[in-house]
Amino acid sequence: MKQKTALISVYNKEGITDFAKELVFLGWKIISSGGTAKHLSDAGILVTDVAEITGMPAILSHRVVTLHPKIHGGLLALNTLEHLAELEKYSIPYIDLVCCDLYPLEEEIAKHTPSASGTSPYVGGGREGVLEKTDIGGPTMLRSGAKGGRIVICDSVDRTKVLEWLKNGEPDREEFLNNLAAKAEAMISRYCAISAEYHSAGKYKNIFGKKVLECAYGENAYQAPVSLYRIHGGGKDPLAIINWQLVAGSPLSYNNICDVDRMMQTMTHIGAGFEKNFGKIPYIAIGAKHGNACGAGISQERFLREFPQEPLLEAIRKMLLGDLRAIFGGSVMLNFNVDEKIAEELIHKYAGENRRLLDIVAAPSFSAEAIEILSRKKGKCRLLANPAILKAGLSSLDDSKRFRYVRGGFMEQPNYTFVPKIDPLLISPLAGGEDANDVLADVILAWAVGCTSNSNTITLTKDGQLLGNGVGQQDRVGAAKLAIFRADEASEFKAQQEKNVVPKADLNGAVAYSDSFFPFPDAPEVLINRGIKTIFATSGSVNDDKIIELCKQKGVNLIMLPDAEARGFYQH
């Protein structure tokens, strides 16, 4: 049997010696060049230098080493009598495997990323370094190997897989080689796209991803098929969708994935807001419907002093009471572990004789008893676990670029990462005897929920609880009225269940957040007339002075930050 040949040329030498030794043990011949050849030779591995095959040393400051017909001919030749005869005629070895990584172009470009001031990195001394770290020979060898149907290794994690495959007799050879080739082509495509983006100063942009999940259908049944793709490096984010473990229930649907993503935004914004303003993160429970929070609750310090054994239950009860009707069939996310007691609360509290049906419960972990309690027939309740959501705060905000398809193209923008720092002194003079920090906690909760809900939004909170979320409205008055309506509806529904007198929601002393400025005083007046005592909004309206004067006259706290800094629009 003819001895097989492997061409190995890597920038990162870690682990390459072990790989080469295994190939030699299997009877393979090794070809290499430059630093890789020396590294393998120093390890006692017999290596044939590329220069011995090409008859030429590396030239042009090592810019041309493997770009030669005697290398690429060995990678591109077909296993036919005609091609094999031609290889023999010109003394070209048939190369069966190419293992190659690329110069760290992306890392070099990262050294010259745009600064916050907007200074362009695409001019000056950085370009020379980028050009020197732009690999030509590596991508060319990989593409030649892919086209030639060779074993192509562009990722170090595949070396072990290839060795095992060789030892097992090369099962499903065509599919195995095709998958390796596809990976190499994708990696090189992205590599070239990064270079294009850099040299065009961002004029050219590409999105690369790998399919990690296939859903039965999309938002609606007729929208099929649907796939989740992981962007390059996306798996390194602890809170990436693919890092949530499905511990019970059916596979995630398109809508499930969107809900989890939206709830993570709300959860991390609440955590970040409290961490920035209070230096610690409370226990948080979020209930959502169609991505928007319909209930949210936090456990506050004063409650912990009164009921130190039940801070988790406090957060859940507040979340459920935000809207007992909407939470039915909804999704829940918690930043604390779920045991039997927590599971019972989620399913039975305020549910009367019935069992509350939930579509998703996401938390750091679940006990075996909790899984049994929360599970539904046919896997209708998906239980998702990820320890990274435990007390997630400032460092857990998603800071990756966000993309959105529009007809004929897509848009890119920075993520939603603004977190306000609010001075309690802005609250205490008008707080009506309430503790300024308790009011501030409600401000942060209202902001975090409102700025991660579909705009336009006005959000109402009180005592660490979401009371009403008026999302997706075309005007501020409508958003204010909807928030109040939802608070009243939630209160009425609870009263009906408990067979009590039907009251309106108690909004006296509540906090209102508006995700942008008020164009007129009419919306603040609607809020104030229902007892709201603190309003957090942005400035930028031609009528700011009128709104400030109205709040002064009514004895209402008005916290305003510039709209250019603090506007909270989300998911237009």
UniProtKB/TrEMBL annotation:
GO terms for cellular component: cytosol. This is MGS-like domain-containing protein. Transmembrane segments: none annotated. Gene3D superfamilies: 3.40.140.20, Methylglyoxal synthase-like domain. InterPro entries: AICAR_Tfase_dup_dom_sf, Cytidine_deaminase-like, MGS-like_dom, MGS-like_dom_sf, PurH-like. PANTHER family: BIFUNCTIONAL PURINE BIOSYNTHESIS PROTEIN ATIC, BIFUNCTIONAL PURINE BIOSYNTHESIS PROTEIN PURH. One of its GO terms (molecular function) is IMP cyclohydrolase activity. Pathway: Purine metabolism; IMP biosynthesis via de novo pathway; IMP from 5-formamido-1-(5-phospho-D-ribosyl)imidazole-4-carboxamide: step 1/1; Purine metabolism; IMP biosynthesis via de novo pathway; 5-formamido-1-(5-phospho-D-ribosyl)imidazole-4-carboxamide from 5-amino-1-(5-phospho-D-ribosyl)imidazole-4-carboxamide (10-formyl THF route): step 1/1. Residues 1-156 form the MGS-like domain. One of its GO terms (biological process) is 'de novo' IMP biosynthetic process. Keywords: Hydrolase, Multifunctional enzyme, Purine biosynthesis, Transferase. It comes from Candidatus Nomurabacteria bacterium RIFCSPLOWO2_12_FULL_41_10. It holds the Pfam family AICARFT_IMPCHas. PROSITE patterns: MGS. Belongs to the PurH family.
